[in-house]
């Protein structure tokens, strides 16, 4: 083969590569379907369930409407978005980048810039077992109806997806043997590792104020509404409850879930989505001012913030200064910032006794340099979706670990009001049980050492 032939072959290959790249997997069409024909087709597809929120894939739209005029790709937080654009119509699909093998599913349909109802605000009705593979591992089976499915062979899938008290299940004869989601949801409320035994001794956080700084909260949830003494949402009035706050409040002070169920909760809503420490700085300064006027039994001694990477946000030097001031005032601030202390997560083995340290395995968010690990996976938490709604989280994250540690700090301040924040952190790490799973938090051993500090004359500052 001479050089001219080689060049011609390479040119052909390069042209084909450019053509494929330009068209992509959802190629642009030279003759898209006409708008007047498309409207009827879309409405029929929606009514039949073919075009359905979170279930329909791009190729299913193209099978009805043909190829789009063009496609547009973009990112939205942790998701990739794909838009198929037709005359006067846009179909938006999404998938999480963190999930290998995830497929694009339908999120939104607009016609003449008006959003069409594809079931965004209704319970998601799965049509067949194949729809299970389209669900992401963040939302999973929450507010999903599985009543039409036979799930007897789907145990691995069911054990990987979160669900909630709004999930509709088929009858027991269509579930895997021994799989009982209602029992899991109830048993998952136990904070585990001997915490309820401490509650039985009266060590519940009573007389200690605990603050959470997080996203806007559903204030009415039965799990923590009775402990909520004050709520501040300055600058966020009318902003709807977000998913982050309810589980955190329930872990800290929830009546059934909480580590410190009788601590007094003060909640400060901030726009955590902004790369700015201003909200946290303002909230901590409000706490300093509040403590000047609060009765002793409500004085805030511990603050839980399920956020980190503060160094990458604006006003970091001021944030560091306000943290130092908190410590000087005897307030422990627990955050997820690994530059402070590196804690990881644990997952409870399915249906195992949550009080046994041997029944935990390293969680998804655990790392070799963890100084302590906290139960967060295969646990039940309060949901922001309703006052009586709970969800069962398969993985859990460090966001759920921070309020667990804050709750333990509240127990410590109840036992010994004079203990310093640094001493609490030191004792939590020192009492961790070192197993093949890693350093597991030891609530009972921790409180025993806290009791021994009562007679000490000096405390670690």
Automatic annotation (TrEMBL):
Signal peptide: 1-27
Gene Ontology BP term (one): proteolysis
Coiled coil: none
Record keyword NAD present: no
Active site: 214, 244, 399
Family: Belongs to the peptidase S8 family.
Pfam families from the UniProt entry: Peptidase_S8
A GO molecular-function annotation: serine-type endopeptidase activity
Top-level taxon in the UniProt lineage: Bacteria
InterPro entries: Peptidase_S8/S53_dom (IPR000209), Peptidase_S8/S53_dom_sf (IPR036852), Peptidase_S8_subtilisin-rel (IPR015500)
Domain spans labelled Peptidase S8/S53: 391-432
Keywords per UniProt: Hydrolase, Protease, Serine protease, Signal
Name of the protein in question: Peptidase S8 and S53 subtilisin kexin sedolisin
Taxonomy of the source species: Bacteria, Pseudomonadati, Calditrichota, Calditrichia, Calditrichales
